[in-house]
Structures are given as C-alpha cells and as structure tokens.
C-alpha cells in the first residue's frame, strides 16, 4: 500500500467514499420515515444495487493495493439532517429534487474517472455505475412528477 494515491486510486477512493455517503443519506431518509412508500421503495432498491456496485469498486481499489476509504459520516449526517428539515418545510418533490442533484454530483465524479485509461473490466464497473445512476435519476424524476 502506498501512502500517496495515483490519479486512479484517488478517483476510486472518491467514487467509493461519496457513493457510501449517498447510501447512508438514503438509508437515513428511510429510517427517519420522512418519505412516502413509493420513494422508500425506490431508495431501498437503489441502496441494494449501489452497495453491490460499490463492492466492485472496493475490489478495484484493493487490486491496486489501496485500502478503501470510508465515506465522510459527518457530511452524510449533515445532509440527512438537511433532508429532514427540507421534508418538514417543503414538499417531498423538493426533497426528491435534492436527491437528483446529489446523484448528479456523484455521477459527474464517476464520469470524470471514466475518462482515465482503465482496463476493460474496470471500465465496465464504472459504466454500470453511470447507467445505474442515470436510471435512478429517471425513476426519481418520474416519482417527483407524481408527488
């Protein structure tokens, strides 16, 4: 394990850590019972799929001799508190919009990393993350229109 990460290790660490923070955020929304049943169901499916995908990112990190980085729990908690406040002040549609924005930020990290020269297997993992995120945002957008 090296002390300094190269651009590949740094990209994987960022994707993994930020992805874990989003999972925590989604789980907090479920645990706080601030979202409707359809939103909860969508978040649960996203958590399950994203957890498996981030497991593949973690394996990529380990294969490169890196130790996976945990998400920033304080930042995830602050976002969850903010989500809770938003759910009390505004509509659930506003909260869903915030989730779409958070997904877009994370997806831009994944897209930026995908521009690096990865092996075919590694590129496949990153592509699947982008596809999953795009589909998740589409489902959020559809859900938002019905709220």
Total number of helical segments? 5
Quaternary organization: single chain
> What is the averaged pLDDT score?
89
Structural class: mainly alpha
Order of helices and strands: HHHHH
- Give the beta-strand count: 0
3D structure, described in words:
The protein has 147 residues and is an all-alpha fold. The protein has helices at residues 7-31, 37-63, 73-89, 92-114, 120-146. It is elongated.
Q: How would you describe this structure in keywords?
A:
0% strand, 147 residues, mainly alpha
Question: Brief overview, please?
Answer:
The protein has helices at 7-31, 37-63, 73-89, 92-114, 120-146.
Task: Summarize the SSE layout with pairings.
Elements lengths: L6 H25 L5 H27 L9 H17 L2 H23 L5 H27 L1
Helix pairs in contact: 1-2, 1-3, 1-4, 2-5, 4-5
